[in-house]
Specification:
2 helices; mainly alpha; single chain
Length: about 60
């Protein structure tokens, strides 16, 4: 499941970055903000997975 979560985090980050760039290029502040939110959500999911990996017994 962790690999699935990490993949989902990377997908959210990439999709958010794409929306942010497209919104900036088109002058669409709404799309740009939506992309920032999605990218941040991916960042948080990735941080959660890193924290889980750090406390996982070896």
């Amino acid at each position: 499941m962790a690999a699935d979560e990490k993949g989902q985090a990377q997908g959210e980050q990439a999709k958010g970055k794409l929306k942010k760039v497209a919104g900036g290029a088109a002058g669409n502040e709404s799309l740009k903000a939506e992309g920032q939110v999605e990218e941040s959500k991916g960042d948080l999911r990735a941080a959660k997975e890193k924290a889980k990996d750090a406390i996982k017994p070896k």
